[in-house]
Specification:
Monomer. By secondary structure, the protein is of the alpha/beta class. It is built from 28 helices and 29 strands. Among the domains are: about 170 residues, Valyl/Leucyl/Isoleucyl-tRNA synthetase, editing domain (Isoleucyl-tRNA Synthetase, domain 2), CATH 3.90.740.10; about 150 residues, Isoleucyl-tRNA Synthetase, Domain 1; about 140 residues, Valyl-tRNA synthetase, C-terminal domain (Helix Hairpins). Helices cover about 45% and strands about 15% of the residues. Strands 6-5-14-16 form a four-stranded antiparallel beta sheet. α18 packs across α19. The chain binds one RNA strand through α11, α19, α21, α24 and α26.
RNA sequence: GGGCGCGUAGCUCAGCGGGAGAGCACUCGGCUUACACCCGAGCGGUCGCAGGUUCGAACCCUGCCGCGCCCA
């Protein structure tokens, strides 16, 4: 680094203005190479591959959440001395990109088919160059400590090589096949979708009962998709159903079409459901397809790629499916064949989760599939036998439910943007060959038209990004990767795929080394401040960039991390971001105070620390250990909460105030500067993974160090807990708080100094804190004999009672004092009653652990003493 | 129908066998020389309901009621 370091200085700007600093700071980190691992040496490797965002996407709050969680893990590991690699990149999002580019083409009055395949793809790369990947700059904005030198894209050269290699390997192993199967067809995309790209939604449709045949031979069937009757090739009934026994084996005329179809018996028909007779459309319904297979029925396709009726030889050919649904029903009604109509009829319909949310159509179609049986088995086993941990563990059943019941995966898409299936057909179509990345097809052979599902390439992400199939140094060093961080909602989308592909591609490394990652850490979804799911339709989405503009990146990250409990959803709202911003400001000002008073971590810690020093150093030690353990266990919310509480409620509210007293004492000033310096140094390092920018500015100013990014992680902060000192600080806090309470209730103005005399401090071990009590309560300690108190209060502590006499310059508010003491008395009485009840139970005394019983006895004693003291004080109050 | 989970302060959530907590909101008082994005004090909860286990249950078990998500 050639850059000059900022001088260690007491004149930090009065305010932290994130927008002016963040971008430059991030650029310096990148240029310093902090995010690029050494890739060798004796540092242990740590690697996370980014769940690749979509090339069309921009940063939404869910990304911000996930990236914050990953970055916290990575930054901590880097500070711990790991050779940390967070590998960035994007996937090519076949369908989403198609939707965008085709829309643009439509606006120009053309289409991809008019343009042709080559030109379309060229156009698409052009789109990517101009508009794709806006999320990458937003990741910089968010502070993601990714290694940009290793950025990858699922359609770059290396990924292509991996995809083709993988396809061929699977093909040669008999794990990829082509077959005509019932698939989920999207008429809008004119492509097949995989099972997981289909959402089942309850809709209000209609159930129409249709009479086939006439007179005694009539049979009634029901359907929600009336138009499919045009493709019926049979009616089936249960073999034991007496109502239809005489019809089994006979033929019946299919209305409107005029074809004759058989009535058949099939065990799978439920005679209780509807009329007990089922129309069979083998080419357009998964169940019917199975029936058709069992009975060797013809399977005419009656719907084209765009969802229009075709090939039925009826007037309905050319109509859209929904149009035909109405027209067919009306035509049947005209013939008197509609026996019943149930409307609305609630039933489940598969909808596309890609592009327009249209109903998908089951359609018989020739597609490529991955035979997942052995792959899914291995993916399940890796978790079952503990090689891969799912965190939190409660999510395991979800994972198993998926991998253990997986259907073969349809990987072909009738699209152009993506990896074209590497299979070529001979001119007469009788032969096919699958080629590897460096092989040439025979002259005159033509390549399969379809491209692969985007997940086929994303599934290879944990190793294709590291160079596979080449045996690169990165692959050797960073595979298996350490952790996969992703949302539980997309566990199925690609975790299972990465598991299957990783175990398969890396099988030669053996069971332990073939896994794609050691841990799957699942987070929840970001919800709005009311806990509602965010959606565009509900209008409750938030833009993390706007929040970053308004409150700074650190505040957004802090908020997200603070909401992140493992595997559960995270509600966030603007109020929470404000609170985080406020925390950052608090930290900023507190550090400024420390600097202005000469805080310096390089000073030696005092050999004879004060109670306050010992207490805060002990707490720092505890907090560091807690935060370290919590982050190790992905407990972000608790780790952040611990830091928030320590910083605000302990360090700022108490230690800093006590430090002000100590700094006025020459003999303790340097020790205090050392403790302040040490405490802020450690605290800033602990906070850095969560809020990197702010902590960098403060840490550099405080320590003069190069960068907190590469500062050591404080697992062991150094000072053991001094229980005696901590106890005295607790007592001190109680004394101070009780006096404040009295002042408030007596309406003594905050700013007014009050003459006072303190008694009993020495007996309770607080003799050394006389000055602190005075300073924190704005008391003038009266030494003169003519001091005349107007009020006294007694504060009971474990070691004795502190007596405080105050001259409030006037009569005290007896009613307020009576009320205050009354509340205290009620509380003490309740405490006494509870303790007596427990101690009066012989079984409790007998069976409960000794320390628990002892604790209750102590509480009883304190309560009893309180009651006596308070009662006495109440009696001494003037009658009003 | 199967699986996972949730019902704790006005809101959002921690706590998961021995004294009910946090953030935000609210009330009162304060521009006290780090900070009004702040300081001090305070109000606020039969921990969904009913049983059971236990010396002791918000916490463990059973049932019920209500809610959410995933899969079929």
């Amino acid at each position: 680094m050639t850059e000059t370091l900022p001088p260690r200085t007491a004149d930090l700007p009065a305010q932290w203005i994130p927008g002016e600093v963040e971008a430059g700071m991030y650029q310096r980190w990148v240029e310093a190479g902090y995010f690029t691992p050494e890739g060798k040496g004796d540092k242990p490797p740590f690697c996370i591959v980014i769940p690749p965002p979509n090339v069309t996407g921009s940063l939404h709050i869910g990304h911000a959440f996930e990236h914050t969680l990953i970055d916290v893990l990575v930054r901590r590991r880097r500070m711990q001395g790991y050779d940390a690699l967070w590998l960035p990149g994007m996937d090519h999002a076949s369908i989403a990109v198609h939707a965008l580019v085709e829309k643009a083409l439509a606006e120009e009055g053309t289409s991809r088919r008019e343009l042709g395949r080559e030109a379309f793809i060229e156009r698409t790369w052009q789109w990517k160059a101009e508009h794709g990947g806006s999320i990458l700059s937003q990741m910089r904005r968010l502070g993601d400590s990714v290694d940009w030198t290793r950025e990858r894209f699922t359609m770059d050269e290396g990924a292509n090589h991996a995809v083709l290699t993988m396809f061929k390997k699977l093909y040669d192993d008999g794990l990829i096949y082509r077959a005509e199967r019932m698939v989920n067809w999207s008429p809008a995309l004119r492509s097949v979708l995989s099972d997981i790209e289909v959402n089942h939604v309850e809709v209000e449709g209609e159930l129409v009962s249709i009479r086939y045949g006439d007179g005694d031979d009539a049979i009634v069937v029901a359907t929600t998709r009336v138009e499919t009757m045009l493709g019926d090739t049979a009616v089936v009934v249960h073999p034991d159903d007496e109502r239809y026994a005489h019809l089994i084996g006979t033929q019946i005329e299919l209305p409107l079409v005029g074809r004759t179809i058989p009535i058949l018996a099939d065990e799978h028909v439920d005679p209780e459901f509807g009329t007990g007779a089922v129309k069979v459309t083998p080419a357009h319904d998964p169940n019917d397809f199975e029936i058709g297979r069992r009975h060797g029925l013809p399977m005419p396709t009656i719907m084209d790629e765009s969802g229009r009726i075709t090939g039925t030889g009826t007037e309905f050919d050319g109509m859209d499916r929904f149009e035909a649904r109405v027209a067919v029903r009306e035509a049947l009604a005209a013939q008197g064949r509609i026996v019943a109509e149930k409307r609305p009829y609630l039933h489940s319909v598969g909808h596309s989760s890609r592009g327009p949310q249209e109903p998908i159509e089951p359609r018989l179609s020739l597609q490529w599939f991955v035979k997942v049986g052995p792959l899914a088995q291995a993916a399940g086993d890796a978790v079952r036998d503990g090689r891969v941990a799912v965190h939190p563990k409660e999510m395991e059943p979800r994972y198993f439910a998926w991998v253990d019941n997986m259907h073969d995966w349809c990987i072909s898409r009738q699209l152009w943007w993506g990896h074209r299936i590497p299979v070529w057909y001979s001119p007469d179509g009788s032969e096919q060959v699958c080629l590897g990345p460096d092989e040439q097809p025979p002259a005159g052979w033509t390549q399969d038209e379809d491209v692969l599902d985007t997940w086929f390439s994303s599934g290879q992400w944990p190793f294709s990004t590291l160079g596979w199939p080449e045996q690169t140094a990165d692959l050797d060093r960073f595979y298996p990767t350490s952790v996969l961080v992703t949302g539980y909602d997309i566990l199925f989308f690609w975790v299972a795929r990465m598991m299957m592909f990783g175990l398969y591609a890396m099988a030669d490394r053996g069971p332990e080394q073939s896994i794609p990652f050691h841990t799957i850490a699942l987070h929840g979804m970001v919800r709005d401040e009311r806990g509602k799911k965010m959606s565009k339709s509900a209008g409750n989405t938030v833009d993390p960039i706007q929040w970053m503009d308004a409150y700074g990146t650190d505040a957004v990250r802090f908020t997200l991390a603070r909401s992140a409990n493992p595997g559960t959803d995270a509600p966030v709202g603007e109020a929470a971001v404000q609170a985080s911003r406020n925390f950052g400001t608090k930290l900023w000002n507190a550090t400024r105070f420390a600097l202005a008073n000469g805080a310096d971590p390089a000073l030696p810690l005092p050999s004879e620390p004060t109670d306050a020093d010992a207490w805060i150093l002990g707490r720092l030690n505890e907090v560091a250990a807690d935060v370290d353990a919590l982050l190790e266990d992905f407990q972000y919310a608790k780790a952040v909460e611990a830091l928030y509480h320590f910083t605000w409620d302990e360090l700022c509210d108490w230690y800093v105030e006590l430090a002000k007293v100590q700094l006025r004492d020459e003999s303790r000033a340097d020790g205090t500067r050392a403790v302040l310096g040490h405490t802020f140094d450690v605290l800033l390092r602990l906070l850095h993974p969560v809020s990197p920018f702010l902590t960098e500015a403060l840490w550099q100013a405080l320590t003069g160090g190069e960068s907190v990014v590469v500062a050591p992680w404080p697992a062991e902060a150094g000072s053991p807990v001094d229980a005696a000192a901590a106890g005295r600080v607790t007592d001190l806090q109680k004394v101070v708080t009780e006096i404040r309470r009295f002042r408030t209730e007596q309406r003594v103005p905050d700013a007014r100094r009050v003459a006072a005399r303190l008694g009993g401090l020495d007996g309770t071990g607080l003799g050394g804190h006389r000055g602190a009590v005075a300073a924190l309560n704005r008391l003038d300690l009266a030494e003169s004999p003519d001091f005349t108190p107007t009020a006294t209060l007694e504060i009971a502590l474990p070691g004795g009672t502190v007596h405080v006499e105050l001259d409030t310059s006037g009569a005290i508010d007896v009613a307020a004092e009576r009320a205050r003491l009354g509340r205290d008395l009620t509380a003490a009485q309740k405490e006494l009653d509870q303790a007596d009840k427990k101690l009066g139970n012989p079984k409790f005394v007998e069976k409960a652990p000794a320390e628990v019983v002892e604790g209750i006895r102590a509480r009883r004693a304190t309560a009893a003493a309180d009651i006596e003291r308070i009662t006495s004080r109440l009696g001494a109050l003037p009658q009003s």
